[in-house]
Amino acid sequence: MGSSRRTALAAGGAAVAAALALTGCGQGFDDAEDDSEGLTSSDDALTILYGASGEAETRAIEAALAAWSEESGVEATAVAATNMDQELSQGFAAGSPPDLFYLAPEKLAGYAENGSLEPYGDLLSNKDDFYPSLVQNFTLDSEFYCAPKDSSTLALVINTDMWAEAGLTDADIPTTWDQLDTVAAALTSGDRAGLAFGAEYQRVGAFMAGAGGRLVSEDGTTAVADSPENLEALEYVKGHLEDGTFAYAADLGAGWGGEAFGKGLAAMTIEGNWITGGLSADFPDVNYRVVELPAGPAGQGTLQFTNCWGMAADSPNQEAALDLVEYLTSADQQLAFSAAFGPMPSALSAADRWSADNPDLAAFLAGADYATGVPTAAGSAEVVSDMNAQLESLATGDPAAILASVQGNLEAVVG
């Protein structure tokens, strides 16, 4: 499983069918606005390449495409990728890419720079309904390329049984780092850490965000990894790794934070909303609650993960693809996907209904208001991978040296 997404909570087929009933009428090609001029148009069927988290996602995607096809009259076929990067690259190289496909933020720049992507974001009739932070993830050189299909953020997950056994109550839910210090210490016992998470920027970066830091400036043009804010965050984490109240999941013998939490090796973890599926499947007897991450010195902060619906520049039927994207990213359809396999909606208009339907998970969606995305410049994924290797030894390492290394590597790829 990847570091930024774990298998999401899957609902039964009945839930999928009921949720899909919400979708109503599609956008319809005949209603396409004039500003779609410039897109290709033909009678060709559409092919959609996606990476499924499981059977629930496959069923939901196929059902949505079938409903859209019935309304639009355009055939659409879903293809589940076994290796998204490889299959997408091969499709572009052969001149026959899928019309639409899942695209991660860190892959945007590379495909955009070689002309593989159609920048259609500003043509979307619902372009103003996406969280601004998600739009930023898919904006390059001030051009909005593709619609974010869903969203995930990090939050604090607490084992409520261990919490009660430690004599903690609702009044002790940490809202600051100082309060997190206190409860982590109270929950640390023997071989059990108070808080565990992955040894990677995709988790440790949440503390950087809370300190007011980030790896790349908000406009994506400047590397800012070696900032005082990031140093404060890494020194904070290092101190707690040293005193044993925080721990990396791997150091506890677990593959990721959700496993450490599920096995009782940690009383708290920092994870995304995909943890619900993991706990339901593998640790159904663990009782837990989800709260927003405690605010750091600069206020609330978390990390955000997403994919967009990338559109091929070589697609012969881009007008139909645009119509399909609008259908798939409508509030009703995103809520149907959420009911089917767990992702949070990227549409602002779906937020209240999602929170009402998932009150125990509302903290994840609340984080979307202040979340920081991962770097998106071409080559930044390799920089983050190198950073993760250095973060593994943070407890005995030099935070300033780690950040200086990351800064130098980022400067070579940003701007």
Strand and helix map with partners:
Blueprint: H1 13-20, E1 46-50, H2 55-72, E2 76-80, H3 84-93, E3 100-103, H4 105-113, H5 132-137, E4 139-140, E5 143-144, E6 147-148, E7 152-159, H6 160-165, H7 177-187, E8 193-197, H8 201-210, H9 228-243, E9 246-248, H10 257-262, E10 266-272, H11 275-282, E11 288-291, E12 302-305, E13 308-311, H12 318-328, H13 331-341, H14 351-357, H15 362-366, E14 371-373, H16 380-391, H17 399-411
Parallel strand pairs: 1-2, 1-3, 8-9, 8-10, 12-14
Antiparallel strand pairs: 3-13, 4-5, 6-13, 7-10, 7-11, 7-12
General description of the model:
The chain has about 425 residues and is of the alpha/beta class. The chain folds into 2 domains: about 15-150 and about 305-375, Periplasmic binding protein-like II (D-Maltodextrin-Binding Protein, domain 2), CATH 3.40.190.10; about 155-305 and about 380-410, D-Maltodextrin-Binding Protein, domain 2 (3-Layer(aba) Sandwich), CATH 3.40.190. About 40% of the residues lie in helices and about 15% in strands. The chain has 17 helices and 14 strands. Strands 7, 8, 9, 10, 11, 12 and 14 form a 7-stranded mixed β-sheet that branches. A 5-stranded mixed β-sheet has the order 2-1-3-13-6. Strands 4-5 form a two-stranded antiparallel sheet. Helix 2 (about 55-70) links the parallel strand 1 (about 45-50) and strand 2. Helix 2 (about 55-70) runs antiparallel to helix 13. The longest helix has 18 residues, at about 55-70.
